[in-house]
Amino acid sequence: MAIIATSAVLALAGLTAAAHQLLEHRVKGKLTHIHTSDTLYNKEKYGHILDYDKHSLILHGQPTLILSGEFHYWRLPDQSRWRPILEQYRSAGLNCIRIYFHWGFHSSKQGEYDFSGNRDINYLLDLCEEIGLYVLAAPGPYICAETQAGGFPIWLAGMREIRLRHMKTNFWKEYDPEFMKYCVEYFEHILPILAKHQITNGHGGCVLGLQIENESFQHVFHYPIGLHDDMRVLAKTARDCGMTVPLFTNDGFEEGSFVVKDDPKKKKKDFGVDLYGFDKYVVFTPNSEPTSWVVGRDPSYLQEWDPSTVVSELEKMEKKVRSFGHANKRTPIFIPELQGGWFNHYGIKYTYDAIYRFYGDDYTRLMLDTVFSQGCTMLNFYMFYGGTNWGTIGDPDVYTSYDYRACIRENGLMSGRLRNLRKGLLFLQSFSNIVVRTDAVTSSKLQTARSSLNKTISLQRRSQISTGKYGPVELTFMRNFSPKKVDCFDLFALSESGNTVVRLSCYLAYKASFIALGNYTTVNPDIHLILSATPIHIRAYSGIEKKKEVWIATLAEFGATEMAFRGDLALTSLGGQHVGAAGIKLRSSADDKDVKVVTIPEGAKHAHVVLSSAVDGASKPELHIIFLNQATLSTLYCYYDNRHSEESARASQPKIVTWGSYNAYYNPHTNILTADSTLSQSELHVLMFGQDATLPLKNETIYGPGLAHQIFPLKADGTATSLSLHSQHTQWVEQNCQGIALNDWEIRRTDFGRLPWQDCPRKSKGSKWFKNVQLDYHFTSGHVLYRGTFTTRERVKEGSSSQPTKPREIWLKFNMRHRITAFVNGVSIGSHMVYSRTLLSPGAKVGHDPISFGGHQFLIPKKALEATVNQKTEGGYRVQAHEIILVIDSVGLSRMPFVLDDVRNPRGLLSATVQGKSVVKGSETWQVTGVDVRTLDMAYSSTGFPDEHEQSGWTPTKNNVGPCIIPELEGVTWWRTRFTGPPGALTHSGATVPGAQSTTAHVPLCLRIEGEFSAMIILNNVLIGRYFGSDSPQHDFYMMDGLVHKAGSGYSNELKLMIYGSTVSAAADGGDAASDNKIRIRLLPWIVEDAQGVLNQWSGNTQFDAEEDFAKEVQAGPFWTERQAFRLAAPSRED
Question: Taking every annotated instance into account, which residue ranges of this chain make up the domain Glycoside hydrolase 35 catalytic (predicted)?
Fold first, then answer.
């Protein structure tokens, strides 16, 4: 029996291997005339501009870090905001963005492409070149991105004969040449635009690489799924369209997809792409688990994320990626999507604010430091600014806000997460020549640092750069995952033999991280840093001959701040604020008398030390260290003059460093420094470095001697104009904190009888199921409307012409996706939603949706039946004709993630019958109407109501209160009003601003809605949001700055709401806004925690209507800033 069993196992294994081999053969395809070698990057021709090795990209001969953030221009309906948001990316320390180019956004109708206005990607790339941001271009054709159909045009999704992404069914692809024909057409329209902006053109272009497809796995857990022919055709088309930069992929996770083989000319059936990329999403919120049941759960009970998840997901990343072999041994570790947050869903009771708290302020910085500990030098944070799913561009996974709890919140606020991340990015940029080429110290026995607290050192790497006689610079990756959650501990520097050289005090908050610099020799070879137990953020050089190296470092929140040096050193200058009686010290190590420790006592607000050689110190360069506290460092900004061109290859050298303002941005083309500040900020500190510094060197400053340092007053320069404007801005915000007046409302009703109805066909005669007309008719933006009719016949009481002898129950039974509000004879009878975050459930947001399930029914109340105006009595029977109106809002086409074929899951009305003994058999009819998105300028811009642009029928109302309570109205009603915007639009940094006057204010507005009803929100003729009552967690809607006309512009703003619901009733102003049957609408500035940055948190989390004591505790208030511009010098000739 054992022999038989063994034989059976071997036979099964053989069959499995044979099946796997057949699958491998199938996915490798037939278009083998297109070889990997045909599409490889031409290093011989372009390598002097762009090259790469196992460590990094090499731009103009200089190894370069790629520090990128995702940017979705199509999630900003106001093009005027592209520049300020991208300038925030640059201010945050990034040097690159990745852009998903959205096929459907540019093509509403087959064969037509629009690259104008808000879709002008040529202008977008021009902006990136001007601002100094590289671009990783990801044109798909598939982009995922939580957008309808994954970015495919609706007209293409409507072609049922086409296999989108070649998907024949879930988990199975078959190559479709017709699908590829349309993909090639799209590439031929968009790629020539991108090609004009390539760095390889040699004219300062910004595009570094082109991503082919998106998360197109070659294998999923060893199962062959990715089609080589798909990648072949896309890559070949890219080259044919003039793309000469490297091509890259992004695996959904590390699966080794489409790696270039060592000898691609011999491996013709295997297709590979120049650079292998992979995505890393590590910690997920509980609401994103497919089997989670968290609806109704208090967000304060979200379980804290487990640090072991980060360890298991990231600690072996470098080893795994290199294990794929072939080209992966010779190319940089590249993460096109590194988790920068997470999205939220319908049906959840908590908002992005709770998700922000769940991850904490340090999570994105933690991701950065951890992947750098694994040798990554190319990364892109997804998202860095999420934006808005305005119109209906989002898919079923997401609602209107795409805040993503990203570094920049949806309303533009630069969060505490950004500020912590920026400190890490500034370190990487300052020491880029060191961190860009490193090797892991693979054994803990070889590490030269040890901690007294377990799980606070994740790894150590050694640079291939040596700055002095002591060997390679060392980077110790500090990360506090201590089970004890202790934040103060000791850090030991060790000799090569493992003996303790020095013991340093170290502070690191739980779940926080930083990279500790060690074994580094300064510009003065006598000053050698053994180890810094506190983060260093900026390295700069002062003076023409670099006579001084300047660092900016962190003061520990608790305990002493310490750095250890080797050498015969002298402390030539020291000082600070609140340094205490103990003062700043330069002490000798108890373990090695040749080691000196700089110690700053706890409690200092800022401090500085200047170190020099004890012998002949005056003739040798100095090390000048400025220590700033966490609150000050949260405002730290640095401009690196690292714009690469064919003429030069500059090292990362800060030119301008500032702190003290909410945000700062330097424009090298105009030499204008702009600073945005809050009410609590009064001074902007500016340091300048380099030969062209326009601020004079000073013999003494509060941060030590010999610095080009100046303090500028913020918000008011003393002139009458400046003071008056500041007073006006402040007064406006104070007056409108409770709500901007919304007066003179007008109203109109949708007349369903006048809409263009057409028959709604059943799947077969007598079937209760309808055909999927929503997609066939391209009614994919917003609502689909259905009109049903039926007749009832009831015997009436003797002597009565209208009262039935025995009223019968009548039911409307239906199945639909996703949200329905039903009216019978104009009377609302109920609302319902079929939507699920769980796989294989009715209304599943992704994957298979079992449409046979999810049915529901409404009992049609007597009130609705009696509301008919069409009835007669004949032969003792009352005959009534009834009208049903079904308003169904689809939350979008699914996006086909990974290997799922769900884009054509049915939407709208799936089935409907009217049942009851008094219903006349055969009297039921159904019609449908909506908006064919192929007729629109933008396919995601419609409410779905054919009368949405109707200008007649508006009548005034008497509702003239500020925070507006809108009374009950049956059916679907449209409301509109006009309001005056806040003061002053932001001027961009390219403007010529004379003097230093605070002439502009930035006051982002929020439309806050409460109540159980549905609404479509239209601002100045742009559909900006969808309100779903308790079916969505969103009650606060961002009124995009670029859409709001500001006070003094000569234009007022139109706010229009389409409103309907089943439980709406009238309410008096000042009633209980939490009650389900009231509609409350307020327009006001965003009220957020720590609005002025006093607590150094900058979460951006909202606190509308907070209790007074709690509001004071969290420093809640309106978020707004004022902008000031400083011209530092005339524009330099090179710019």
Answer: 56-423
- Entry field: residues in the chain: 1135
Burial of residue 586, with CB atoms counted within 10 A of its CB: 0-12 exposed, 13-18 middle, 19 or more buried: middle
What pLDDT shows up at residue 831? Answer: 95
Which residues lie below 8 Å from residue 210, measured CB to CB, with a gap of 6+? 137, 138, 139, 191, 194, 238, 243, 245, 246, 247, 248
Confidence band for 266, pLDDT divided at 50, 70 and 90: confident
Question: How confident is the model at residue 290, as a pLDDT?
Answer: 45
| Among the listed residues 727, 712, 658, 692, the one whose alpha carbon sits nearest the alpha carbon of residue 995 | 712
Q: What is the pLDDT of residues 284-297, one digit of tens each?
A: 988 775 444 444 44
Residues 145, 151 contacting (CB under 8 angstroms): yes
Q: Describe the crossing of helices 82-91 and 121-131 by its angle, rounded to 10 degrees.
A: 30
CA dihedral (307, 312, 313, 316) positive or negative: positive
pLDDT for residue 11: 61
Q: Is the pLDDT of residue 987 over 50?
A: no
Per the model's pLDDT, the better-predicted residue between 874 and 1100 turns out to be 1100
Torsion of CA 424, 429, 430, 432, to 10 degrees: 110
DSSP, collapsed to helix, strand or coil, labels residue 156 as helix
pLDDT of residue 581: 67
677 contact partners, CB below 8 Å, separation of at least 6 = 660, 661, 662, 684, 714, 715, 1121, 1122, 1124
pLDDT over 60 at 954, yes or no: yes
Burial of 712 (0-12, 13-18, 19+ CB in 10 A): middle
What number of CA atoms fall less than 13 Å from residue 903's CA on the CB side?
Answer: 32
Q: Which residues of 968-984 are buried (b: 16+ CB within 10 A; e: fewer)?
A: bbebbbbbbbebbbbbb
> Is residue 501 within 8 Å of 592, Cβ to Cβ?
yes
How many Å apart are CA 160 and CA 1134, to the nearest integer?
A: 56
d(CA 852, CA 764): 16
pLDDT digit string, tens, across residues 1060-1097: 986 533 332 333 434 455 788 999 999 999 999 999 89
Angle of CA points 752, 793, 813, to nearest 5°: 55
Q: How far is 431 from 964, CA to CA, in rounded Å?
A: 55
Can you tell me the distance from the alpha carbon of 256 to that of 912, in angstroms, rounded to the nearest whole number? 48
- Provide the mean pLDDT of the chain: 91
Q: Is 559 helix (H, G, I), strand (E, B) or coil?
A: coil
Assess contact for 751 and 975: CB atoms under 8 A: no
Q: How many CB atoms lie within 10 A of CB 614?
A: 14
Q: How many CA atoms lie within 13 A of 350 on its CB side?
A: 22
pLDDT digits (tens, 9 = 90+) for 837-871: 888 899 999 999 999 999 999 999 999 999 998 88
C-alpha distances (whole Å) from 156 to each of 148, 568, 1075 are 12, 73, 44
User: CB of 742 within 8 A of CB of 1055?
Assistant: yes
> Which pLDDT tens digit goes with each residue over 383-409?
999 999 999 999 999 999 999 999 999
pLDDT of residue 989: 47
pTM of the entire structure? 0.95
Enclosing H/E stretch for 69: strand 66-71
Going by C-beta distance under 8 Å and a sequence separation of 6 or more, which residues neighbour residue 1031?
346, 347, 819, 833, 835
Residues 566, 530: Cα–Cα separation, whole Å: 6
CA 719, 725, 730 angle in degrees (round to 5)? 125
Contacts of 409 (CB under 8 A, 6+ apart): 403, 415, 1100
Contact indicator for 386, 341 with CB cutoff of 8 Å? yes
Tokens, residue 860: 């049609």
> Which residue bears the tokens 């409907």?
912
Residue type present at position 172: W
